[in-house]
């Protein structure tokens, strides 16, 4: 603060800086296109197409519009699900607690403790005096690595960045803990190394757990209940932030530098959780994610690429929400209802519990939308087959005419 403002007494100026951020958001958001799914739910088709074309940067959005129609219509009657009904469904409950754990873990990883209590943490790792002002490098590093994360999230995937990000933070916290307890590390050359370690910690967070924690739940949750489930996750995020900032002061008072070891263990647990309990959500729809989660098998929680996920989704014997593969290459959702009541809802297939009045509507809506797609594909295949047979008969007649006697 003294470097930027000249005096710590000018701290109220920092509060005024926040208003400029709010003004910037107001200006930027006024130029952002509206959410396509929101426009679809409102029935504004003209604005929907324009918004989708603007977001994708192309005019070829017909396939995405069809997928959006199928997903939104299949879940339209589930928009009134209460929190009690969400928690009563096994699959949705697992999805919800996974998102809550991700958001809690993001805060308990210690990132905010480094930002808020950087001077205390640097004192643990022998970075004291004028070198503390170099903490601004961490802020610059955060902005730079955030741009790198945007490029890697789609190429590498969400899950690997989360796992390796937490692993890197675990290792770096251990290194800081060692540097704070070994006297040989207090020499001047090691002070620079420790500062590099702190900057690397910020980079690991910004590339993986920072953005990934907010993206994965959005891609996991079905559209109809996404708002309610994300609301719970955001509340968990704020609770985790309070626990992290308050807990750091308590731990510092009782165990001193070993506080860093506690945060290191937390990051290791988070890395294992992401590896064992998450699926890769990149390039698959929320409906496909729901199908994988409904299986209840541990192998659906491992890293799954596009090819593997399609094969798992099409496995009728193991997955009650199997997506049947057609010869045209499309995945069509056909939930099996043989083992449960014919009035069971789409989300109640895992538990076999009969649903309320919305269940029958959802069941019928799913059958109608999926059945139409299957019939369309089947009719197209029949037309292609008839055309092929007709061409074959024509070639055969021509061959017979030129056959010598």
TrEMBL record:
<dbReference type="InterPro" id="IPR005829">
    <property type="entry name" value="Sugar_transporter_CS"/>
</dbReference>
<feature type="transmembrane region" description="Helical">
    <location>
        <begin position="229"/>
        <end position="251"/>
    </location>
</feature>
<dbReference type="Pfam" id="PF00083">
    <property type="entry name" value="Sugar_tr"/>
</dbReference>
<keyword id="KW-0472">Membrane</keyword>
<dbReference type="InterPro" id="IPR045263">
    <property type="entry name" value="GLUT"/>
</dbReference>
<protein>
    <recommendedName>
        <fullName>Major facilitator superfamily (MFS) profile domain-containing protein</fullName>
    </recommendedName>
</protein>
<feature type="domain" description="Major facilitator superfamily (MFS) profile">
    <location>
        <begin position="1"/>
        <end position="282"/>
    </location>
</feature>
<keyword id="KW-0812">Transmembrane</keyword>
<feature type="region of interest" description="Disordered">
    <location>
        <begin position="386"/>
        <end position="405"/>
    </location>
</feature>
<keyword id="KW-1133">Transmembrane helix</keyword>
<dbReference type="InterPro" id="IPR005828">
    <property type="entry name" value="MFS_sugar_transport-like"/>
</dbReference>
<feature type="transmembrane region" description="Helical">
    <location>
        <begin position="165"/>
        <end position="186"/>
    </location>
</feature>
<dbReference type="GO" id="GO:0015149">
    <property type="term" value="F:hexose transmembrane transporter activity"/>
</dbReference>
<feature type="compositionally biased region" description="Basic residues">
    <location>
        <begin position="392"/>
        <end position="405"/>
    </location>
</feature>
<feature type="transmembrane region" description="Helical">
    <location>
        <begin position="134"/>
        <end position="153"/>
    </location>
</feature>
<dbReference type="InterPro" id="IPR020846">
    <property type="entry name" value="MFS_dom"/>
</dbReference>
<feature type="transmembrane region" description="Helical">
    <location>
        <begin position="12"/>
        <end position="32"/>
    </location>
</feature>
<dbReference type="InterPro" id="IPR036259">
    <property type="entry name" value="MFS_trans_sf"/>
</dbReference>
<feature type="transmembrane region" description="Helical">
    <location>
        <begin position="192"/>
        <end position="217"/>
    </location>
</feature>
<feature type="transmembrane region" description="Helical">
    <location>
        <begin position="257"/>
        <end position="278"/>
    </location>
</feature>
<dbReference type="GO" id="GO:0016020">
    <property type="term" value="C:membrane"/>
</dbReference>
<dbReference type="InterPro" id="IPR003663">
    <property type="entry name" value="Sugar/inositol_transpt"/>
</dbReference>
<keyword id="KW-0813">Transport</keyword>
<feature type="transmembrane region" description="Helical">
    <location>
        <begin position="95"/>
        <end position="119"/>
    </location>
</feature>
